[in-house]
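It is worth pausing here to work through a concrete case rather than discussing structure prediction in the abstract. The textbook approach is simple: state the sequence, then state the predicted structure, then interpret. We follow exactly that order.
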Amino acid sequence: MTKKVLDITDLKCPMSFLKTKEFIKENFNQKKVIILKGKKEYNLLSNSLKKNFEIKVTQKKSDIFEIELS
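Step two, the predicted structure:
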């Protein structure tokens, strides 16, 4: 299984949510990793993703987060 990465560190909600939604649709049968910036963005996106996915979160820097979808 290949891994696809979406870097949305330069986007704010709601664009980060919309880009993530399209990314998930396009890469349905692949391992997905989303990189985002900011605690607020992380909280908003992770709360939405937890409803439909099992997620694994890694904090890369003080305000950079990596979310892996299963």
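Step three, interpretation. DSSP finds two helices and four strands in the chain. Helices lie at 15-26, 39-50.
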